[in-house]
Specification:
- By secondary structure, the protein is of the alpha/beta class.
- It folds into three domains: 60 residues, no CATH class; 68 residues, Roll (Ubiquitin-like (UB roll)); 151 residues, Cell division protein FtsQ/DivIB (Rossmann fold), CATH 3.40.50.11690.
- 34% of the residues lie in helices and 21% in strands.
- The longest helix has 29 residues.
- The radius of gyration is 37 Å and the shape is elongated.
- The termini are far apart.
- The N terminus is likely disordered.
Length: 320
Amino acid sequence: MFQSSHSNRRNRPAGQTLMARLKADATDSRRPWWIRALIRTGLLAVFVAALGVGGWWIRDRWVYQIPSLAIREIVVEVDGVLAPDEVRRLAGIRLGRNILSVDLPRLRDRLQLHPRVASARIVVEFPGTLSIQIRERLPVAAVEPLAGSGIKARYLLDETGHVIMPLSAGSAPETAVAAEAALPRITGRGTVSPEADADTLAALRFLREHSQRPEGALPEIASVSVAIPGLLDVTTFDGATIRFGGEPASFDLQLRRWSDLRAALAASGEKRVIRTLDLSVSQNAPIRWLESSSPEQPATAPASPQNRPRLKRIPRRTHV
């Protein structure tokens, strides 16, 4: 039987095989190749569109309607002067909204548009908690440039040179408003442009380095002048003027020289106090003295601070 089958295939008339091939070729040749490609593309597009519409319908009519995924609690963490209610208002997220419907990157970007927000982090804690974590910008100096018209403007800068408008009375705790009012001033800019230049950024870096010294090791800073390019003239609350080289990499060394000099003077019982000191000179820094018994005082000596308030990060966490 098998031999007969193989024999039939081998002995099939050549005309039948040729006719079948000719019919197949004729069928394919009726449709140009581009029409066949267009049909396949159309069918694929219809399939993809059906998937998209079906996915949208399932998302909006089923997933977003699952009661267990509704936002039942919004947790706000701040570390500065921003009120948690203000953060929630900026977020614009209401309780009861489906937690999967929140566009987290867009929400983060919207919060970071606030001038006092350095970074925002959004965390979803299933099934129904949305956590908003805010790290605020901490101002380190005030700038009071004098405009050509004689009108004074005042704004604050954080350590990166980002502009922050001062707090107004009643908009934040009194201690925060007072601390911002007592910030060291950057002077000598001669322009109202808020853009921080290289010398201003160097002054901000210097103030940050100074703030990291042990409390009481160095006098409090009243102002930093950037009037001379590449140099910082620092005025302290005790009336001394200390000149620093404007290279940020050298601030640590210059501050240690200043601190060591003050410690040596105290250990030796020296009664004179420093009036001017030029630490931009690496060796044998020029120094001028002010006798403690002398009635003479620097004409530009600022008033000494009384329990000067300081800005601090105070983490706070609230639930709604």
